[in-house]
Amino acid sequence: MRKPADSSVDLHPILAERWSSRAYDPAATIGAEDLTAILEAGRWAPSASNGQPWRFMLAHRGDKAFTTMVSTMVGFNQIWAPNSIVLIAVLARMTNDDGSPRATALYDVGLAAAMMTVEGHHRGYNFHQMSGFDHAAFSAAFGLTSDLAPVAILAVGKQVGAEAIENEAVRERELAGRERLPLTELVIQTH
């Protein structure tokens, strides 16, 4: 299924065609080279003062970490996410080496996740980025230190048709159109 962005000007096809599906092939796999390239894209993202506050936690379908990540998800995410090939938890190191707050950590981590999403789309995978999980339960389940904050879980999969989704409410969300606020509501003009 395609849902190209309805933008005011043409965008690069990778950006225009990218959207977050919930319909994944439960038998799909990912090769080591593709997964490494996706992680490398995140590794090479820009960051303030080259601080690189991102950390990536991988969980492959069928392993204990995958089951644990899914168990921390809320709502619809627990229904469709188990068909993902891999889940990538994106964590932010919230402090600098001297213990001071890292003001740009979340921004930098968002850039890394975006770069991984673009690389993954380029390689034929669909990414669905989720904040819909219990962050405290996730931290406890994986024994995260207080300076590591779970920011998002990226579900990586091979997209299939919406008819593969058995849950009617999830299928409706899959079929719904893509919407964004217009630029006139997003751009703050300065004079």
TrEMBL record:
<protein>
    <submittedName>
        <fullName>Unannotated protein</fullName>
    </submittedName>
</protein>
<feature type="domain" description="Nitroreductase">
    <location>
        <begin position="16"/>
        <end position="63"/>
    </location>
</feature>
<comment type="similarity">
    <text>Belongs to the nitroreductase family.</text>
</comment>
<dbReference type="Pfam" id="PF00881">
    <property type="entry name" value="Nitroreductase"/>
</dbReference>
<dbReference type="InterPro" id="IPR000415">
    <property type="entry name" value="Nitroreductase-like"/>
</dbReference>
<keyword id="KW-0560">Oxidoreductase</keyword>
<dbReference type="GO" id="GO:0016491">
    <property type="term" value="F:oxidoreductase activity"/>
</dbReference>
<dbReference type="InterPro" id="IPR029479">
    <property type="entry name" value="Nitroreductase"/>
</dbReference>
